[in-house]
Amino acid sequence: MPDPKKPKDDDMPDFSGVTGGASTTAKSAAPAVVYETYTVKSGDSLSKIAKRKYGNANLWKAIFEANKDRIKNPDLIQVGWELRIPAKPE
Asked: Closest by alpha carbon to 38, among 74, 76, 69, 66?
């Protein structure tokens, strides 16, 4: 007597045309952020560094965000600090 829980052969999907390999619909990992290092000099501010590196002083927040572990107040940066300067934001 056939097992009622077991599907019949004609109810099974046909995977005979499937070949090896892998695919996914998952998004690929974000590209690694590339940083340049900059040593803070006397008279520097984040906006001055942004103007020099990006050509736009208003992009100072990108530098601030990349250095939040060191910079607590963006108006107070110290001479000699090594800052990470990310690639120009789009």
From this structure: 66
Domain map (residue ranges) of the chain: 34-90
> Which amino acid would we find at residue 37?
T
Contacts of 18 (CB under 8 A, 6+ apart): none
pLDDT tens, residue by residue, 27-47: 767 667 788 999 999 999 999
For domain 34-90, the CATH class is alpha beta
49 alpha-carbon distance from chain centroid:
22
Residue 73: CA count within 13 A, CB half-sphere = 3
Query: Mind listing the pLDDT tens digit for each residue in 36-88?
Result: 999 999 999 999 999 999 999 999 999 999 999 999 999 999 999 999 999 98
